[in-house]
Predict the structure.
Amino acid sequence: MNNREVLFPGSSGEPLAGRLELPAGPVVATALFAHCFTCGKDSVAASRISRELAARGVAVLRFDFTGLGRSGGDFADTTFTSDVADLVCAAEYLRDTIGAPSILIGHSLGGAAVLAAANPIPEAKAVVTIGAPADTAHVEHLLGSSRAEIEAHGVAEVVLAGRPLRISKEFLTDIRRQNQQERIAGLGRALLVMHSPQDELVGVENARLIYDAARHPKSFVSLDGADHLLTGQADAAYVAEVLAAWVSRYLDVPDVPQDAGGEPGVVTVTETGTGKFQQSVTSGRHRLIADEPRSFGGADTGPGPFDLLLAGLGACTSMTVRMYADSKQLPLEQVTVSLRMKGKDTILKDLVLSGDLTAEQRQKLHETADRCPVHRTLTGDLTIETSTG
């Protein structure tokens, strides 16, 4: 899997920090994950569910809302409405890179946010809520006696889940005026409601209210034994497994078994349809993604063609040196090969050999490196025959 940090502008113009979890193989769907009220993109639930989904072929973007984590802006200036607008900006970022999200996933108040963001994201075909409140005003009970101070002074610092947050009166006014029941009734997408009967922060009765307000297709899955934040690794894995299976009914997701493989010795490259250049590369039972960098119009979701060429040469060089050193019982500890293109017809290869080697042994290993099979193929009389089917 490929985990990378991204930045994109939020609804207020401030940069939002995100993490894009990409599968090692073909991208079968793209999802947008909204974290809980006081959490961030790297919360236990967001991280584990995103990784589990990526392992099942689903690319997932999770990000910090304005004023949280590594995102810009002041949390005191945010409202539920601005969080929904941030989700729409995140969807736009995905739309411009690897493809608009077909799945919206929200945890706790993030679940309420994805229900509200579904209509402004027309490509979304399925919505999943995890431990979500049926009414956004549910958040008020977390504020306790601080509500009076917020009302009186316009803003107050509140400690939630061990972290201080400045919450404004505008935030309270905004969550009170949201009509979630109407939104849920008019969702127009497949809905999966996941909730734990033991949820200590958002009671399971909220799941019933969401489910009853929604029209079909809709489903409910009980996360029996899980806490609100899904701190148990098995719980997060279960959510991802059920979610991936459920969503396949509503998306054009190809049935690709995790252990499926191609013919040994045959490399197959196929367009994924995600982005402008993204390719699925299959070699036997192994899969990876190829792409072009953004400077060439790609989405940079994987190595480019020349990067893969250099990787093949580097791997072969390292393996050949290792085989020779082991056969001669040389004290070689590690081989590192760094390669880059110089123009279109020259490859610069830097070989680093770690270990207590004599000058003569190092020289012999350097000579061996240039005799690896891929090196000889590239510098020999290579013929490529193309057939069309």
